[in-house]
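Bumping my old thread because nobody answered last time. Still need a sequence for this structure:
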């Protein structure tokens, strides 16, 4: 009983800390300023902290619904699980969201495809529904377009045409924009008043839009049908162990290929002088090593992993030579490494390989459709 009380206190304490850190991060995104003094920048105070709840409450609500979707479904399947552990993370220097997410601990061995499916699909679908509500509210309650002048009073000299001028001379990383996915495009087109939609580099100042978009982004990552991600559990249950063992690594290779497409191009080497060529060559070697480490657990044979790595790199170079304008999204490379090296590409085998019933199959393919609707090829645009 004493140990259980300590665990509850830990979980509750982590939630409260995460609420504070996401509120602080939300306020920093909303106002474009920090709580910690930095380079003579005006700091945020109590009023801005309170405003930050407009981000933290909807965002943590979606995250909590997601985790409790897993929790209650696991309990319904007689699988012992913990309550969610929230992971606070506030950098204090901007560009963090105040958390690394949350997780529940599964305390039992899951021996059934059906149980993996039920537990895996419940979280993302539950969170997705609430994310739709948050996005609908955010897009249907946009403030007048002049609102942006309260954040950037320097834009007033350009009026509402600020987008043509404000981003021309920014330093690298000076502006962060939200990319598009099918759902975000739908809400911008059919729900929002077109006259009130902010420039894509200013949407980070609108807390409900930011919270909803991040929810879609993390939902899409969770639903990638690889390994022990929720999407991996779903696909494993849908197609079974034998098919999954070749489908999952194939999808992982495609994902890694897209993430690194355009990072290195043949023209980078051809146009470089001697010093730049050597520097580029060293960077290229580090990139190959990075990919090899990401692919190192895709096969028990090191030679197979190396051949896969080299094949992906060669194909990236060929595509970049044929179509230099084709580029992936290098931000996904971090997730490729985490997935390949730590989370795993394959799925734990289950003792029971019973096929799913029709209702679950429909839900499974619906979840993969949700992945397509939420996935953004370039989720964050950095100037």
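Sorry it took so long. Here it is:
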């Amino acid at each position: 009983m004493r140990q259980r009380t300590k665990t509850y206190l830990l979980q509750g304490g982590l939630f409260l800390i995460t609420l504070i850190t996401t509120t602080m991060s939300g306020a920093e995104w909303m106002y474009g300023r920090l709580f910690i003094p930095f380079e003579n920048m005006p700091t945020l105070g109590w009023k801005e902290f309170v405003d930050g709840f407009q981000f933290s409450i909807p965002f943590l609500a979606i995250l909590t619904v997601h985790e409790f979707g897993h929790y209650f479904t696991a309990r319904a399947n007689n699988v012992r699980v913990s309550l969610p552990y929230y992971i606070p993370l506030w950098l204090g220097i901007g560009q963090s969201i105040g958390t690394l997410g949350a997780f529940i601990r599964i305390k039992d061995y899951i021996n059934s495809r059906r149980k993996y499916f039920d537990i895996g699909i419940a979280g993302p679908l539950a969170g997705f529904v609430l994310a739709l509500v948050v996005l609908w509210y955010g897009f249907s309650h946009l403030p007048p377009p002049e609102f942006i002048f309260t954040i950037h009073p320097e834009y007033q000299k350009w009026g509402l045409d600020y987008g043509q001028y404000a981003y021309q001379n920014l330093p690298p990383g000076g502006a962060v924009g939200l990319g598009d996915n099918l759902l975000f495009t739908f809400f911008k087109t059919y729900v929002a008043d077109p006259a009130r939609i902010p420039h894509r580099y200013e949407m980070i100042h609108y807390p409900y839009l930011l919270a909803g978009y991040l929810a879609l982004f993390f939902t899409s990552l969770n639903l990638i049908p690889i390994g022990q991600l929720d999407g991996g559990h779903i696909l494993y249950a849908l197609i079974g162990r034998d098919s999954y063992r070749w489908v999952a690594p194939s999808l992982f290779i495609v994902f890694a290929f897209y993430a690194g497409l355009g990072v290195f191009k043949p023209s980078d080497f051809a146009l470089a002088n001697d010093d730049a060529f050597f520097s580029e060559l060293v960077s290229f070697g580090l990139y190959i090593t990075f990919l090899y480490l990401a692919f190192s657990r895709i096969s028990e044979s090191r030679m197979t992993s190396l051949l896969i790595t080299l094949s992906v790199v060669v194909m990236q170079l060929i595509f970049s030579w044929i179509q230099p304008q084709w580029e992936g999204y290098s931000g996904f490379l971090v997730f490729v490494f985490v997935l390949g090296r730590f989370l795993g590409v394959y799925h734990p085998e289950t003792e029971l390989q019973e096929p799913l019933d029709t209702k679950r199959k429909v839900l499974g393919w619906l979840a993969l459709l949700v992945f397509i609707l939420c996935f953004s090829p370039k989720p964050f645009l950095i100037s």
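The chain has 13 helices and four strands. Let me know if any region looks off to you.
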